[in-house]
Amino acid sequence: MQLRTFLAKDMREALATVRAEMGDEAVIVGSQKTKDGGVMVRAAFDQGIDQVENITDLSAGEPDDGDAPASLQSERREALIRRLRGEQPRNASASGSFSRPELLALLRGHRAPDSITHDLAKTAEQSGLSDMTLALACALGRRMKTAPIDTAQNAALLLVGPNGAGKTAVAAKLAAHARLTFRAVQLIAANAAGAGAVARLQTFATHIDAPFAVAENAEALAKSVADCGKENVTAIVDTAGFDPRNGKARAAFSALAKIPNIQTVGVVSACGDAEEIVEIIGALATLGAGRLIVTCADLIRRLGTLVSAATSGLPLAHVTRSPYVAAGLETLTPLSLARALIASDRNADEGSAQ
Amino acid sequence: MNVPLPRLTAIGSGKGGTGKTLISLALAQALARQGERVLLCDADLGLSNIAVHAGLADGGDLAGVLAGRCSVDSAVVAVNGGAAQGGFDLLAAPAGSGALANAGLEAAMCLVGLLRAARAYDRIVLDLSAGVGAESMALAAAADETIAVLTPDPAALTDAYAFTKLLLCATRSRAPEFVVNLAASETEARRTSDSFVSTCRAFLKFEPRLLGIVLRDASAAEAVRRQQALAAGSAASRAIADIAGTLHVRVTPQKFAANDVR
Questions:
Q1: Contact by Cβ (8 Å): A82, A43
Q2: What is the DSSP string of A167-196?
Q3: Are residues A109 and A22 in the same domain?
Q4: Cα-flanking dihedrals φ and ψ of residue A163, to 5°?
Q5: Which of A40, A214, A232, B191 would you label with A200, given CA atoms 20 to 30 Å apart?
């Protein structure tokens, strides 16, 4: 359980700090005014009972067997390994031991590019870890960079990426996240290709109760971003989709990416080819994207594109696994990706056996 | 006649230094004043120190009981006249010996069985060790009621929460009641209580019950230094007497039922 105490000048600031530092699921368990007129807020977060695994039923008042202490210790060790692997307790069937050929086969099954597959398998083997999940997580950790977006910062976010990547939904998710932390936010449609795209973003803005604007060109966007900066408002800019590998299209967007106080965030869909996504991410990086959001992770069974995106060198900000705005943005860690790769591989095996 | 089993009341906390042992001692005496035959058992199998708190040279022979060398009746030490004369009995391992340091879960469960069979008592107060070790949690789960002692210290709150969560897991349904100790004021105690209840409600979907508040009392600290019992008229003593009153009401109908005549 996390329990933290925050001092702030008022309740609003305190709540924003709690959410920023402990997440949306933290609960305020106490608050009081301080002598200097501010507030002190105490917040807690815990996984609840689900987090505790393998608790022996001791309510009967009798030991189950004579060697209970030793077996309890070994059960706890096993439970820890299972928790790290991400398995549900009591249903672990596979041994989960590391094997380089098995890891290569697993990554190929996910259609990960060969170059990445071999590199990951080699690093996993060099890690010396005997557990498959942990060895893979270690290898991914060597290549992955994660950089979640802090919407409380005073910088505009420019979302760029191919058509259908989900930029508009990501803009709405970011805006909703900012609103939950009591951060003022404005949604801006720039380089809008069609009336439908603008209307969709405007609808999201209405739902989130955030102001909405349209910037017809780079100059108008620069002014809007500057105005937001002065008023301490986070501007989230949605753009029309384009192929970033196309030099002409990229040039058209470079003017937007060069606007002062704007951070470019690449948005790509996980539905696609694992090698092609590497090319797209490379092109977005050339455009000035400093980090990446991968959408539609809920729609794929083979996770090669996620592996490609995570190991592309561009810091991964978030992944999304739902089209719904409230479902938010998730952070992918090496361990969670390793778990997902192994879990979906097992699911596929089970599915094919049935 | 059907003689009821003694009621086991476990007192734990998670964090050390919450005043658990002092409350256990005062509670045993207060329950004895209510007319109950009380045995106070120092269930800290590794570091027994309840006899030190009580200013006794000998706390009994808990190690002998667990080893099968003697019965509970013959291993206890009478405090303030003993259970038969308005005081209570004490069962502990020798202080500073570490005699039961590696007793383990099996010994803890064996202890529960032996105490349950000690029908000379109405109530057995178990002073658990600090922490959430397997032995402490097994004893807490085996008791009829468990009381967590917490203080306004945030670390005490998180540790009491861990204690509560593990107890809920072990028993599937029963969480401890709790006592707020060492609060500087009623307001601070209520704030601590509210924080604890809110945390449990949010993450465990369970609201533990506040059993009582024992405010910081200079005479209690002095009693600890002098290795004496709490002064009878002190604020801490009165507060613990109130808690004893609440607990006593639960055991009374059980006694009447056992001796009932139609």
A1: no
A2: HHHHHHHHHHHHHHTT--EEEEEES---HH
A3: no
A4: -60, 140
A5: A232
Q: Is A351 within 8 Å of chain B by CB?
A: no
The percentage of chain B sitting over the pLDDT mark of 90, rounded to a whole number, equals 39
Within chain B, where are the H helices? Answer: 20-33, 50-53, 62-67, 72-75, 104-116, 134-142, 154-171, 186-204, 218-226, 235-259
Give chain A's end-to-end CA distance (angstroms, integer): 41
The count of domains in chain A is: 3
Kindly give the pairing relationship between strand A316-319 and strand A291-295: parallel
Q: Which pLDDT tens digit goes with each residue over A197-219?
A: 788 888 888 888 889 999 988 88
- Rg (Cα) of chain A, in Å, rounded? 23
CA–CA distance, A330 with A149 (Å, rounded to integer): 11
Q: Between A and B, how many residue pairs show a Cβ–Cβ distance under 8 A?
A: 95
DSSP B227: T
Number of domains in chain B: 1
Question: What's the mean pLDDT when you consider all of chain B?
Answer: 84
Which chain A residue shows the shortest CA-CA distance from B160?
A: A1
Residue B44: CATH number of its domain: 3.40.50.300
Task: Tell me which residue range forms the domain holding A293.
Answer: 156-332
Q: Does A62 touch chain B (CB under 8 A)?
A: yes
Q: Do A59 and B172 touch (CB under 8 A)?
A: yes
Does ipTM come in above 0.85? no
A31: which strand partners? A41
> How many Å apart are CA B134 and CA A55, to the nearest integer?
10
Query: Could you write out the DSSP letters of every residue in B58-106?
Result: ----HHHHHHTSS-HHHH-EEETT-GGGTSEEEE-PPTT--TTTT-HHH
CATH number for the domain that contains residue A170: 3.40.50.300
| Buried/exposed B150-177: b ≥16 CB within 10 Å, e otherwise | bbbebebbbbbbbbbbbbbbbbeebbbb
* Number of residues assigned to chain A: 354
Which pLDDT tens digit goes with each residue over A273-316? 999 999 999 999 999 999 999 999 888 889 999 999 999 999 99
Beta bridge partners of B220: none
Collect all residues of chain A within an 8 Å Cβ-Cβ radius of residue B169: 49, 52, 55
Q: Are residues A176 and A110 in the same domain?
A: no
Tell me: pLDDT of A19 over 50: yes
A270's tokens: 């996980």
Per the listing, tokens 């309890």 go with: A72
Pairing label, strands A27-33, A39-45: antiparallel
Residue B183 above 70 pLDDT? Answer: yes
CA distances from B9 to A293, B143, B148 (A): 55, 6, 11
CA distance B170 to B163: 11
The Cα–Cα gap between B110 and B108 comes to: 5
Burial class (CB in 10 A: 0-12, 13-18, 19+), A61: middle
